[in-house]
User: Which sequence fits this backbone?
């Protein structure tokens, strides 16, 4: 029996991935790759929609790929590649741009947020078209399942709308994908600002745990995490965002349920919860960090591996791109 096709990706927008990427994406991807025919990309073209430093971008792309592998994404079981290595992404994105409404793209909340923060002049057409490129990523592989965080739900909805519109105008070409959204418990918040999500591009790094940080640095950040002065370990997102966040991280790394953890720390202050959580993080990221550094120490081998995977992706993508070109009436090259 063939396994259902799965697609997801992450932007190479920092030197290291952060704890939220690990818990909300890499960990679930690792499990999902067993039962799916999975494609995971480093979406470098998406990263270009906000200014990137050319001198460091290349390295970030490699580092992101290395962290995928180090966290357990298998480049044999799954197809792990760099988006810009498969030209069909931008080619299909163009076709999809022609069937996307201007108003429809303008309603994407991520675009509205980012563009209002940057101002109209600093906002590129690329940022506006970001979700259309994402739709191309997904549709090129006849994807059935798209595991993403809640913030990407609207983009997957747009992808479904575009696929249905294309199929009804030009004949059945694309599989209609479904989002697989990580629950609220998979969302990790900034340790210093526990009502905003932990993010690679946070303004301050004090509340972000990096996968590649030195263990002592991660431990210190956890010990300094913002809590409250109640001194009672309990889960309440509204009233105790800091402690609740620590409990969710604890739960997702240990695989234990939150009430069980709360019961264990009953009557103790926050100190021992933090200390044990720091140990959990260090134990989880230690081997990932080590493996990522080994992979990054041999960039030529990493590049070869990515190139082999890009060949696989290219083959699958070409079939769909050719069908889409045919469907809209382009002339095949003789
Ligand atoms: P950026 O700050 O560059 O936008 P990011 O760290 O917010 O980056 P993305 O690259 O946009 O992360 O997201 C990659 C994946 O990681 C997505 O599936 C997203 O849902 C997940 N993710 C990101 N941050 C968190 C978080 N704090 N908690 C849970 N999942 C997260
Ligand atoms: N926008 C996504 C990254 C992304 C993606 C995709 C996710 C680009 N293309 C295709 C799933 C499928 C994000 O998480 N920031």
Assistant:
């Amino acid at each position: 029996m063939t396994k259902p096709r799965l697609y997801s990706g992450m932007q190479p927008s920092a030197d290291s991935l952060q704890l939220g990427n690990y818990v909300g994406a890499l960990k679930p991807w690792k499990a999902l790759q067993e039962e799916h025919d999975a494609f995971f990309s480093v979406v470098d073209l998406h990263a270009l929609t906000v200014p990137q430093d050319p001198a460091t971008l290349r390295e970030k792309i490699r580092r992101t790929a290395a962290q995928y592998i180090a966290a357990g994404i298998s480049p044999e079981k799954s197809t792990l590649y760099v988006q810009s290595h498969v030209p069909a992404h931008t080619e299909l994105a163009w076709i999809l741009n022609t069937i996307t409404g201007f108003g429809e793209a303008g309603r994407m909340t991520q675009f509205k947020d980012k563009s209002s923060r940057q101002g109209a002049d600093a906002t590129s057409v690329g940022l506006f078209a970001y979700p259309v490129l994402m739709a191309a990523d997904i549709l090129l592989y006849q994807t059935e399942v798209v595991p993403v965080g809640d913030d990407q739900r609207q983009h997957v909805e747009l992808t479904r709308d575009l696929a249905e519109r294309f199929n009804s105008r030009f004949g059945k070409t694309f599989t209609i994908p479904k989002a697989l959204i990580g629950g609220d418990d998979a969302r990790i918040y900034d340790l210093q600002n526990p009502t905003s999500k932990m993010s690679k591009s946070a303004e301050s790094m004090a509340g972000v745990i990096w996968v590649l940080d030195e263990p002592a640095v991660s431990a210190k950040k956890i010990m300094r995490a913002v809590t409250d002065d109640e001194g009672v370990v309990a889960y309440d997102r509204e009233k105790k965002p800091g402690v609740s966040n620590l409990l969710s991280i604890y739960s997702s790394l240990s695989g234990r349920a939150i009430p069980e953890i709360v019961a264990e720390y009953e009557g103790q202050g926050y100190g021992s919860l933090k200390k044990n959580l720091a140990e959990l993080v260090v134990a989880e990221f230690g081997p990932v960090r080590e493996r990522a550094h080994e992979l990054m120490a041999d960039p030529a081998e990493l590049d070869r591996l990515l190139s082999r995977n890009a060949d696989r992706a290219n083959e699958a993508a070409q079939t769909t791109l050719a069908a889409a070109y045919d469907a809209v009436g382009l002339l095949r090259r003789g």
